[in-house]
Amino acid sequence: MAKVLTPQDEDFPRWYQDVVNKAELAENGPVKGQQVIRPTGFALWERMQSRMDERIKATGTDNASFPLLIPQSYIQREANHVEGFAPELWTVTHAGGRELDEPVVIRPTSETVIGEYMAKWVQSYRDLPLLLNQWCNVMRYEMRTRLFLRSSEFLWQEGHTAHNSYEDAHAFTLRILHDVYADFMENDLAMPVLRGLKTAAERFAGALNTFTCEAMMRDAKALQMGTSHELGQNFAKAFDIQYLGADGKQHHCWTTSWGTSTRMVGGLIMAHGDDRGLRVPPKLAPVQAYVMTVKDGEGVGEAAAALHTELSGAGIRSRLDNRSDMAFGRRAVDAELKGYPVRVEIGPRDLAAGKAVVVRRIEGSKTPVPLESVSKVVAEALEADQRSLYEEALRFRRERTTDVATVAEAVEASATGFARLPWDACGTEGEAKAAESAVTVRCLQRADGTVPDSDDEKDLVAIMGRSY
After folding, report:
1. Is there a contact between 453 and 215 (Cβ–Cβ < 8 Å)?
2. HSE on the CB side for 436, CA within 13 Å?
3. I need a surface site. Which of 82, 242, 349, 397 has the fewest CB within 10 A?
4. Is the entire prediction scored with pTM above 0.85?
5. Of 300, 341, 337, 352, which Cα lies nearest the Cα of 321?
6. 215 near 310, Cβ under 8 Å?
7. Residue pair 427/306 in contact by the 8 Å Cβ criterion
8. What is the pLDDT along the chain (468 residues), one digit of tens a residue?
9. What is the distance between the alpha carbons of residues 271 and 273, in angstroms, rounded to a whole number?
10. Please, which contacts does 410-415 make with residues 24 or more away whose CB atoms are closer than 8 Å?
11. For residue 20, with 0-12 CB atoms within 10 Å meaning exposed, 13-18 middle and 19 or more buried, which class applies?
């Protein structure tokens, strides 16, 4: 397999690019920074979207759709927001063969346009909370791009809500962080995440607080997987989002926004992949069981088709590969590259023995199984391998997390993983000093690992590391 992929320990970035290419996940688009997501990659995103959408709707949030083009004046209403996003904006100045009266920007995020419509839709406290989400594409100008991880155009979901109190908005922000994002990432992606608070330097433009889920990749770098923002009343005042309270007085709403993106596909590759390619968590896998004929033989195709039907009937996402015009070895390598959790292989000898061979991508075993037991064995394997993939990633993170006492020690420890440093020993000056060595504070936590309400709580711990 070394001839197919660059080994991780030899060149991790090259390995990543090899997997994206060889597993047919994505390729560069015609304009710098764009990406074409191929069917295999898009199937992963569709599963993520489906599983996330279930959790989002369980909070009472409704999906909607808002425009791609936003008047430039909207962006400029919230000063911190425009300052934070100005370098990343794509601006349209001409349309229909003439110059526009007012330039429009392609949405980098939608707080401004959604805020405009929230102001129209919210009149009374009875209209609150207003909970909205949209699945869409956004564009941000990026100088250095990498497929899935940092592209000029990407797919995501962005939630936007309005509430009648700080307490309600704060609670909802954390509900999204824990019950939607972290729950999905840990239970479906099999990816342990650190939940915490971003520092002021890393906070979303215009927010009071930004909460984050941070994961460790197999090169020991951090990847920000999703964020949930408390916007306070900043956007409500900029867009005049007011409601008539039960007290008969006008009040500005408290708003939130939160988002995850196709960056999670990149995280999946880098957190679980090995030198043979992808390893897709069974819960997330579009194809959980890949049924393959080894070679032609009397009754082999029929037996494979019957196994495929049986697995599908048992609720297992199965795909049948009975191609006789392509070498089995080539097809098996392709299945490993794409990370199908289980392969069920059957050939003439297997059929004669009344068996099929169950190959587990994550655990690595290859076991002959009686035909009548295949569905049971596959179901058990999927459950066990989902669990083992999470435990492996958690163990990897723990082994590469070091408690340190100084910023210098944190920078040194970040060469091989995360550093845990008392925030009092770091502070904003230490954060700036570490940034000179490309080490950032990924998040702040309480000493017990829980999420603080603000960065002025006592005895906070800074999680520091190098990141994507």
Report:
1. no
2. 7
3. 349
4. yes
5. 300
6. no
7. no
8. 447 899 999 999 999 999 999 999 999 999 989 999 999 999 999 999 999 999 999 999 999 999 999 999 998 887 777 677 888 999 999 999 999 999 999 999 999 999 999 999 999 999 999 999 999 999 999 888 999 999 999 999 999 999 999 999 999 999 999 999 999 999 999 999 999 999 999 999 889 999 999 999 999 999 999 999 999 999 999 999 999 999 999 999 999 999 999 999 999 999 999 999 999 999 999 999 999 999 988 999 999 999 999 999 999 999 999 998 899 999 999 999 999 999 999 999 999 999 999 999 999 999 999 999 999 999 999 999 999 999 999 999 999 999 999 999 999 999 999 999 999 999 999 999 999 999 999 999 999 999 999 999 999 999 999 999
9. 6
10. 410/434, 410/439, 410/462, 410/464, 411/437, 411/439, 411/464, 413/464, 414/439, 414/464, 414/465, 414/466, 415/466
11. buried
Closest CA to 464 of 447, 446, 445, 439: 439
Q: What are residue 252's phi and psi, to 5 degrees?
A: -80, 145
Q: Buried b vs exposed e over 155-193: b needs ≥16 C-beta within 10 Å? A: bbbbbbbbbbeeebbbebbbebbeebbbebbbbbbbbbb
Amino acid letter, 185: M
CB 302 within 8 A of CB 322: no
**Residue whose pair of structure tokens reads 């064995």 in the numeric block:** 377
